[in-house]
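Predicting holo structure, 1,3-dihydroxyacetonephosphate bound.
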Amino acid sequence: MKKKMIAGNWKMNGDVATALDIIAGITDAANQSQHDVVIAPPFVYLSLAAEKILSSKIQLGAQNLADQEVGAYTGEISAKMLADVGCQYVLVGHSERRQLYGETDLLVAQKTILALENGLVPILCVGETLEERESNQWKDVITTQLLSVVDHCGIDAFKNIIVAYEPVWAIGTGKSASADIANEVHEFIYYTLSCKSDNIRPSLKVLYGGSVTAENSAQYMSQEYIDGVLVGGASLKPSVFSEIIRSVE
Ligand code: 13P
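Done. Tokens:
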């Protein structure tokens, strides 16, 4: 059976005390899980988190990375630095980066390449806005976002890329996509990538993100094409995130 993934994106929240509290509060659930449990704290807490999770099964991810390798890029953090402090994963192309910081498909592809070159597993976020869903453009939007990375990295790179479907209208809104809608989009993502290569399917993982809670996580996890969840707000509450981890069979 394919391992599932439960990932928590803390976004720009918390402080040292919160970080320690979350890690301590989810360690038991993570250690008892058969699946991959990942936290993505803000950059400044990554080293601390890396130290604290050493004797647990929790894995570490970052929320973003620079689109350059090294040099005079004030304020940026490179893929190599993330690997150096113990990250195994990095979110790429989160809708908040695309919408608030103008990240284009090309930039997202460049970051994906750098992540892969430095041994990180990119968690490539894709998803449509409410307007795009209502005008039935979601397939086009997701195809463009995926194929940009396929064009720049090659389809085989998807053996080491995790895809996260995060409908923009469901992020932080409390209005989650129904399990049926999410599963339909995930099936479409599987289909789109499988059309490029039949080897992709067995290793592909597609996570759902957008207002995941302890109440709805099991519904997502039981869907055929949903291989895990990417949790925002609920990942800041250790007891809730632990429940989400435990909701995966
Ligand atoms: P919420 O779970 O807060 O809706 O955020 C989802 C998300 O953006 C995870 O990356």
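The longest helix spans residues 16-32.
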